[in-house]
């Protein structure tokens, strides 16, 4: 009889939504609510009142670009991390590669390099959120350049995918 081996395949939390379809819906809805709250609060801070016209004209772009930035961040973490392997060396580069390997295949809290690697994915997404909102979403609105900067920076900082940093132990 042929021997069958079953390997333990545990995904890092940032990859969960790729393979669990209902998480897409939850993530889309959650991101829309969070993006709406941030746009509304920052709008209140900038204008001292709620601007429904600004909200209606920008929220779908803010939401879409934010979700696109999350997908780019996940793809970056996956593509870079998939080629890494465990190394037993003491060299600086081998420690970094092992840290990234653990971040993708085990827990990113096993190594400072794993944490930094996951943070780089969060940072990449945040930068994309800022750039797309500053140069596209709020470009042709009544906002001044300073207001666009404040709105875009606020969205980038407050809506970055910090969930990438959640430990896998919360999910399994």
In total, the number of strands is 0
Low-pLDDT runs of 5+ residues are 5-9
Shape: elongated
Please tell me how large the radius of gyration is: 19 Å
Distance between the termini: 33 Å
The helix/strand series, from N terminus to C terminus, equals HHHHHH
Largest sheet: none
Residue share in helix? 55-70%
Structural class: mainly alpha
Mean pLDDT: 84
Strand content: under 5%
SS summary, helix count: 6
List the helices and strands and how they pair.
Blueprint: H1 16-19, H2 21-47, H3 52-82, H4 92-105, H5 112-137, H6 145-159
Helix pairs in contact: 2-3, 2-6, 3-4, 3-5, 4-5, 5-6
Characterise the protein shown here.
Helix 2 runs antiparallel to helix 6 (145-159), helix 3 packs across helix 4 and helix 4 packs across helix 5. The chain is 68% helix and 0% strand. It has helices spanning 16-19, 21-47, 52-82, 92-105, 112-137, 145-159. With 172 residues, the chain is mainly alpha-helical. It is elongated. The chain starts with 15 loop residues before the first helix and ends in a 13-residue tail after the last helix. The longest helix is centred in the middle third of the chain and has 31 residues, at 52-82.
Summarize the structure.
The chain has 172 residues and is an all-alpha fold. Helices cover 68% and strands 0% of the residues.
Comma- or semicolon-separated keywords:
elongated; single chain; 172 residues; 0% strand; mainly alpha
């Amino acid at each position: 009889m042929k021997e069958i081996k079953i390997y333990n395949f545990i995904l890092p939390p940032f990859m969960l939504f790729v393979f669990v379809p209902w998480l897409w819906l939850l993530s889309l809805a959650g991101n829309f609510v969070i993006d709406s709250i941030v746009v509304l609060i920052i709008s209140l801070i900038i204008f001292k009142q709620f601007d429904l016209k600004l909200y209606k004209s920008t929220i779908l772009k803010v939401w879409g670009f934010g979700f696109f930035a999350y997908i780019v961040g996940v793809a970056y973490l996956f593509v870079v991390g998939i080629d890494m392997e465990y190394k037993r060396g003491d060299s600086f580069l081998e420690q970094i590669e092992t840290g990234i390997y653990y971040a993708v295949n085990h827990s990113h809290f096993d190594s400072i390099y794993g944490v930094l690697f996951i943070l780089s994915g969060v940072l990449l997404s945040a930068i994309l959120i800022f750039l797309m909102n500053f140069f596209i979403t709020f470009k042709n609105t009544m906002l001044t350049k300073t207001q666009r900067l404040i709105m875009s920076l606020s969205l980038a900082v407050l809506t970055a995918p910090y969930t990438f940093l959640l430990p896998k132990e919360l999910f399994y």
